[in-house]
Amino acid sequence: MAKNKASLWPWLGLAAGILLLDQFTKVLILGYYQLGDSTYVTSFFNIVRVHNSGAAFSFLAGAGGWQRWFFTAIGLGAAVFIVWMLRSHPGQKLFAFALACILGGALGNVIDRLLHGYVVDFLDFHWKFLSGIFHGGHFPAFNVADAGISIGAVCLILDEILRVRRSK
After folding, report:
1. Active-site positions?
2. What is the pLDDT of residue 74?
3. What is the rounded distance in angstroms from the CA atom of residue 144 to the CA atom of residue 18?
4. E-assigned strands of the chain?
């Protein structure tokens, strides 16, 4: 059992690193940008300050406030489940990497909801070919936590594909 506990720490360290990077970047945005401010960086990327009171793609953003606590509870529940899964499977590197990325991202956004009542987003990518899907071709703004969650989700899918291939 001690071996499993010891091998859990690198994954919790990765999650903590994502969480710290997420919160650090959000502190910078909150300190230097007003809501709605934008800085042009490249022809396809801006730094912006956006507040998202909903979930992904502003899902339930206008729900009246209850969603803050709902998404906080989901994030905390997911964090507990992920830590339990990490304790059970710390030797499965891709799986544990994916879970650690999701854990760091989930906790980063939970902290925002608890502190501010919304999630601070600031990465704004935009391309003309997205105009038919997103207003002005702007993919919804996101943050480091969201990137961690997305990378983790992709790695979970990849891990499952590889697991199925190995079992054949």
Report:
1. 121, 146
2. 86
3. 7
4. 38-42, 45-52, 119-125
